[in-house]
Protein backbone atom coordinates (compact mmCIF):
# COMPACT_ATOMS: atom_id res chain seq x y z
CA UNK A 1 0.00 0.00 0.00
CA UNK A 2 1.32 3.42 -0.96
CA UNK A 3 2.52 5.64 1.87
CA UNK A 4 0.16 8.53 2.62
CA UNK A 5 1.68 11.98 3.13
CA UNK A 6 0.04 15.10 4.51
CA UNK A 7 0.40 18.25 2.40
CA UNK A 8 -0.60 21.51 4.09
CA UNK A 9 -1.75 24.41 1.90
CA UNK A 10 -1.89 27.43 4.18
CA UNK A 11 -3.81 30.65 3.77
CA UNK A 12 -5.50 30.01 0.43
CA UNK A 13 -7.05 33.34 -0.66
CA UNK A 14 -10.68 32.36 -1.19
CA UNK A 15 -11.58 35.14 -3.65
CA UNK A 16 -8.55 34.44 -5.83
CA UNK A 17 -9.30 30.71 -5.74
CA UNK A 18 -12.95 31.35 -6.69
CA UNK A 19 -11.93 33.39 -9.74
CA UNK A 20 -9.28 30.83 -10.74
CA UNK A 21 -11.76 27.98 -10.34
CA UNK A 22 -14.37 29.74 -12.50
CA UNK A 23 -11.76 30.39 -15.17
CA UNK A 24 -10.62 26.77 -15.12
CA UNK A 25 -14.19 25.50 -15.46
CA UNK A 26 -14.86 27.80 -18.43
CA UNK A 27 -11.62 26.71 -20.07
CA UNK A 28 -12.40 23.02 -19.61
CA UNK A 29 -15.89 23.46 -21.11
CA UNK A 30 -14.39 25.11 -24.16
CA UNK A 31 -11.66 22.50 -24.40
CA UNK A 32 -14.29 19.74 -24.33
CA UNK A 33 -15.83 21.23 -27.47
CA UNK A 34 -12.44 21.52 -29.18
CA UNK A 35 -11.46 17.98 -28.18
CA UNK A 36 -14.44 16.47 -29.97
CA UNK A 37 -12.99 17.47 -33.33
CA UNK A 38 -9.29 18.01 -32.61
CA UNK A 39 -6.34 15.62 -32.83
CA UNK A 40 -5.34 13.55 -29.78
CA UNK A 41 -1.99 15.38 -29.56
CA UNK A 42 -3.66 18.80 -29.23
CA UNK A 43 -3.31 20.81 -26.03
CA UNK A 44 -7.05 20.63 -25.15
CA UNK A 45 -7.12 16.86 -25.63
CA UNK A 46 -3.96 16.23 -23.58
CA UNK A 47 -5.02 18.52 -20.73
CA UNK A 48 -8.42 16.86 -20.33
CA UNK A 49 -6.88 13.40 -20.51
CA UNK A 50 -4.42 14.37 -17.79
CA UNK A 51 -7.15 15.79 -15.54
CA UNK A 52 -9.27 12.66 -15.98
CA UNK A 53 -6.27 10.48 -15.15
CA UNK A 54 -5.55 12.43 -11.98
CA UNK A 55 -9.18 12.28 -10.88
CA UNK A 56 -9.13 8.51 -11.18
CA UNK A 57 -5.90 8.33 -9.14
CA UNK A 58 -6.46 10.95 -6.46
CA UNK A 59 -10.13 11.92 -6.60
CA UNK A 60 -11.16 10.00 -3.49
CA UNK A 61 -8.41 11.56 -1.38
CA UNK A 62 -8.68 15.16 -2.64
CA UNK A 63 -12.28 15.90 -3.63
CA UNK A 64 -13.54 16.08 -0.04
CA UNK A 65 -10.71 18.44 0.85
CA UNK A 66 -11.53 20.81 -2.01
CA UNK A 67 -15.15 20.69 -0.80
CA UNK A 68 -13.95 22.35 2.41
CA UNK A 69 -12.74 25.28 0.33
CA UNK A 70 -16.03 25.52 -1.53
CA UNK A 71 -17.88 25.64 1.78
CA UNK A 72 -15.50 28.33 3.03
CA UNK A 73 -16.28 30.39 -0.06
CA UNK A 74 -20.02 30.02 0.51
CA UNK A 75 -19.56 31.07 4.15
CA UNK A 76 -17.74 34.24 3.11
CA UNK A 77 -14.36 33.28 4.57
CA UNK A 78 -11.39 35.20 3.18
CA UNK A 79 -8.72 32.51 3.59
CA UNK A 80 -8.60 28.80 4.27
CA UNK A 81 -6.02 26.20 5.33
CA UNK A 82 -6.33 22.76 3.75
CA UNK A 83 -4.65 19.47 4.56
CA UNK A 84 -4.45 16.87 1.79
CA UNK A 85 -3.62 13.24 2.54
CA UNK A 86 -2.15 11.87 -0.67
CA UNK A 87 0.25 9.17 -1.86
CA UNK A 88 3.79 10.15 -2.81
CA UNK A 89 2.84 9.87 -6.49
CA UNK A 90 0.94 13.16 -6.10
CA UNK A 91 4.24 15.04 -6.38
CA UNK A 92 4.92 13.74 -9.89
CA UNK A 93 1.30 14.38 -10.81
CA UNK A 94 1.71 18.00 -9.66
CA UNK A 95 4.86 18.33 -11.76
CA UNK A 96 3.11 16.95 -14.85
CA UNK A 97 0.12 19.23 -14.36
CA UNK A 98 2.40 22.24 -13.87
CA UNK A 99 4.16 21.56 -17.18
CA UNK A 100 0.85 20.96 -18.94
CA UNK A 101 -0.65 24.20 -17.65
CA UNK A 102 2.37 26.12 -18.94
CA UNK A 103 1.47 24.78 -22.39
CA UNK A 104 -2.15 25.74 -21.81
CA UNK A 105 -1.14 29.32 -20.95
CA UNK A 106 0.79 29.62 -24.21
CA UNK A 107 -2.13 28.09 -26.13
CA UNK A 108 -4.60 30.54 -24.59
CA UNK A 109 -2.36 33.52 -25.21
CA UNK A 110 -2.41 32.64 -28.90
CA UNK A 111 -6.09 33.55 -28.86
CA UNK A 112 -7.07 31.33 -31.80
CA UNK A 113 -10.64 30.00 -31.62
CA UNK A 114 -10.95 30.66 -27.87
CA UNK A 115 -13.59 32.70 -26.09
CA UNK A 116 -12.01 32.14 -22.66
CA UNK A 117 -9.39 34.77 -21.89
CA UNK A 118 -5.94 33.67 -20.62
CA UNK A 119 -5.46 33.22 -16.88
CA UNK A 120 -4.41 36.36 -15.03
CA UNK A 121 -0.98 36.61 -13.41
CA UNK A 122 -2.70 36.28 -10.02
CA UNK A 123 -4.40 33.05 -11.07
CA UNK A 124 -1.17 31.63 -12.49
CA UNK A 125 0.67 32.51 -9.27
CA UNK A 126 -1.96 30.72 -7.17
CA UNK A 127 -1.72 27.61 -9.32
CA UNK A 128 2.08 27.57 -9.29
CA UNK A 129 2.17 28.06 -5.52
CA UNK A 130 -0.23 25.18 -4.80
CA UNK A 131 1.48 22.74 -7.18
CA UNK A 132 4.94 23.66 -5.86
CA UNK A 133 3.72 23.03 -2.31
CA UNK A 134 2.81 19.45 -3.25
CA UNK A 135 6.21 18.91 -4.89
CA UNK A 136 8.27 20.56 -2.16
CA UNK A 137 6.50 19.01 0.81
CA UNK A 138 6.32 15.48 -0.61
CA UNK A 139 9.66 15.15 -2.39
CA UNK A 140 11.86 17.50 -0.37
CA UNK A 141 10.21 17.38 3.04
CA UNK A 142 10.04 21.17 3.14
CA UNK A 143 7.84 23.02 5.61
CA UNK A 144 4.71 24.65 4.16
CA UNK A 145 5.00 28.11 2.62
CA UNK A 146 1.81 30.10 3.14
CA UNK A 147 0.26 32.25 0.42
CA UNK A 148 1.33 35.41 2.26
CA UNK A 149 4.91 34.15 2.52
CA UNK A 150 4.86 33.27 -1.17
CA UNK A 151 3.65 36.76 -2.08
CA UNK A 152 6.27 38.40 0.13
CA UNK A 153 9.03 36.52 -1.65
CA UNK A 154 7.60 37.33 -5.07
CA UNK A 155 7.30 41.04 -4.24
CA UNK A 156 10.87 41.13 -2.99
CA UNK A 157 11.89 40.33 -6.56
CA UNK A 158 13.77 37.13 -5.67
CA UNK A 159 12.80 33.71 -6.97
CA UNK A 160 14.46 30.37 -6.20
CA UNK A 161 14.56 27.19 -8.26
CA UNK A 162 15.76 23.96 -6.65
CA UNK A 163 16.73 21.34 -9.24
CA UNK A 164 17.73 17.75 -8.39
CA UNK A 165 19.17 14.70 -10.13
CA UNK A 166 20.96 15.02 -13.48
CA UNK A 167 20.98 18.15 -15.63
CA UNK A 168 21.37 16.87 -19.17
CA UNK A 169 19.68 16.61 -22.55
CA UNK A 170 16.71 14.75 -21.06
CA UNK A 171 16.05 17.19 -18.22
CA UNK A 172 17.33 20.59 -19.38
CA UNK A 173 13.93 21.44 -20.86
CA UNK A 174 12.30 21.15 -17.44
CA UNK A 175 14.77 23.60 -15.90
CA UNK A 176 14.47 25.92 -18.90
CA UNK A 177 10.69 26.09 -18.49
CA UNK A 178 11.01 26.80 -14.77
CA UNK A 179 13.48 29.60 -15.46
CA UNK A 180 11.32 31.12 -18.19
CA UNK A 181 8.25 31.03 -15.93
CA UNK A 182 10.12 32.96 -13.21
CA UNK A 183 11.64 35.34 -15.74
CA UNK A 184 8.18 36.24 -17.04
CA UNK A 185 7.26 37.61 -13.58
CA UNK A 186 9.67 40.52 -13.83
CA UNK A 187 11.98 39.34 -11.03
CA UNK A 188 15.17 41.13 -9.91
CA UNK A 189 17.14 38.09 -8.74
CA UNK A 190 17.00 34.37 -9.55
CA UNK A 191 18.68 31.75 -7.37
CA UNK A 192 19.32 28.50 -9.25
CA UNK A 193 20.08 25.87 -6.60
CA UNK A 194 21.83 22.81 -8.06
CA UNK A 195 23.10 21.56 -4.67
CA UNK A 196 21.56 18.15 -5.27
CA UNK A 197 22.55 17.77 -8.92
CA UNK A 198 24.99 14.92 -9.41
CA UNK A 199 25.69 15.16 -13.16
CA UNK A 200 25.73 17.98 -15.71
CA UNK A 201 26.47 17.53 -19.42
CA UNK A 202 27.34 20.13 -22.07
CA UNK A 203 23.64 20.83 -22.68
CA UNK A 204 23.17 21.68 -18.99
CA UNK A 205 26.26 23.92 -18.97
CA UNK A 206 25.02 25.66 -22.10
CA UNK A 207 21.64 26.28 -20.49
CA UNK A 208 23.27 27.87 -17.43
CA UNK A 209 25.39 30.19 -19.58
CA UNK A 210 22.47 31.15 -21.83
CA UNK A 211 20.27 31.80 -18.78
CA UNK A 212 22.95 33.98 -17.17
CA UNK A 213 23.36 36.03 -20.35
CA UNK A 214 19.64 36.55 -20.94
CA UNK A 215 18.96 37.48 -17.32
CA UNK A 216 21.90 39.87 -17.41
CA UNK A 217 20.36 41.55 -20.46
CA UNK A 218 17.13 41.92 -18.46
CA UNK A 219 19.02 43.46 -15.55
CA UNK A 220 18.33 40.37 -13.40
CA UNK A 221 21.00 38.90 -11.11
CA UNK A 222 21.51 35.14 -11.28
CA UNK A 223 23.02 33.31 -8.28
CA UNK A 224 24.16 29.75 -8.96
CA UNK A 225 24.44 27.33 -6.02
CA UNK A 226 26.61 24.44 -7.19
CA UNK A 227 28.23 21.33 -5.63
CA UNK A 228 32.00 20.88 -5.75
CA UNK A 229 31.93 18.64 -8.85
CA UNK A 230 30.02 21.21 -10.87
CA UNK A 231 32.23 24.05 -9.65
CA UNK A 232 35.28 22.09 -10.80
CA UNK A 233 33.68 21.50 -14.21
CA UNK A 234 32.95 25.20 -14.56
CA UNK A 235 36.56 26.01 -13.62
CA UNK A 236 37.92 23.67 -16.27
CA UNK A 237 35.51 25.20 -18.80
CA UNK A 238 36.66 28.72 -17.96
CA UNK A 239 33.20 29.71 -16.74
CA UNK A 240 33.84 30.34 -13.05
CA UNK A 241 34.16 34.11 -13.51
CA UNK A 242 31.03 34.20 -15.64
CA UNK A 243 28.68 32.12 -13.46
CA UNK A 244 30.37 32.77 -10.08
CA UNK A 245 29.09 29.54 -8.45
CA UNK A 246 28.47 29.56 -4.70
CA UNK A 247 28.94 26.69 -2.26
CA UNK A 248 25.75 24.83 -1.24
CA UNK A 249 24.46 24.87 2.34
CA UNK A 250 26.28 22.53 4.68
CA UNK A 251 23.29 20.16 4.90
CA UNK A 252 22.97 19.76 1.13
CA UNK A 253 24.09 16.42 -0.31
CA UNK A 254 24.50 15.38 -3.92
CA UNK A 255 22.20 12.60 -5.13
Describe this structure in words.
There is one protein chain. By secondary structure, this protein is of the alpha/beta class. It has 2 domains: 4-146, no CATH class; 156-243, STAS domain (Transcription Regulator spoIIAA, 2-Layer Sandwich), CATH 3.30.750.24. It is built from 9 helices and 5 strands. The protein has helices spanning 14-35, 43-74, 89-110, 121-139, 147-155, 172-183, 202-218, 228-236, 240-243, and strands spanning 4-13, 79-87, 158-167, 189-200, 221-225. The strands form 2 sheets. Strands 3-4-5 form a 3-stranded parallel β-sheet. A two-stranded antiparallel ribbon has the order 1-2. α1 runs antiparallel to α2 (43-74), α2 (43-74) packs across α3 and α6 runs parallel beside α7. The longest helix is centred in the N-terminal third of the chain and has 32 residues, at 43-74. The chain is globular. Mean pLDDT is 86; it is low at 251-255.
Keywords:
9 helices, 2 domains, 3-stranded parallel sheet, 255 residues, alpha/beta, Transcription Regulator spoIIAA, two-stranded antiparallel ribbon
Number of domains: 2
Low-confidence runs (pLDDT<50, min 5 residues)? Answer: 251-255
Mean pLDDT: 86
The largest pleated sheet is described as:
3 strands, parallel
Share of residues in strands: 15-25%
Shape: globular
Computed CA radius of gyration, to the nearest angstrom: 20 Å
Number of strands: 5
Give the oligomeric state of the chains in this entry, treating copies of one chain as homo and distinct chains as hetero.
single chain
Structural class: alpha/beta
Question: Distance between termini?
Answer: 26 Å
